[in-house]
Design a protein that fits this description.
The strands form two sheets. Strands 1-2 form a two-stranded antiparallel sheet. It has a two-stranded antiparallel ribbon with strand order 3-4. The mean pLDDT is 86. It starts with 9 loop residues before the first helix and ends in a 22-residue tail after the last helix. It is α+β, with helices and mostly antiparallel strands. A hairpin with a 2-residue loop joins strand 3 and strand 4.
Amino acid sequence: VRLHEARGSARALAAALRSGEVVALVLDQHAPAPDGAPVPFFGEPAMTSLALARLARATGAPVLPAFLLRDDEGLHVELGDAIAPGSATDRVALTRRFNSVLEQAVRNHADQWFWWHRRWKPNKPNPRGA
């Protein structure tokens, strides 16, 4: 497993996908503009990163939703159906599809979902200038 910085890693992630590696991104985090856009999540606009949609479109790699769940046996991974970027040109529309899958997973396992941050906070300028 190799960790990449959130900023400036797009080329490295695309190269990893092209070489057959698996790349994981976390979608349920607040992402201020310009990297994020207000995308519906549980009926409310939530600033959501567009990086996953950009990466999928740029490489053609399908997105395989994966969720880490706890049960009596310990932890296991639940995989959703692959989402192919196809000819999607609208990053927000593709991100809306991703959020919809995430939303359903939260509904299916609400007892396991906990956010340490405010997911629906307003989009304010990033103090670091990003």
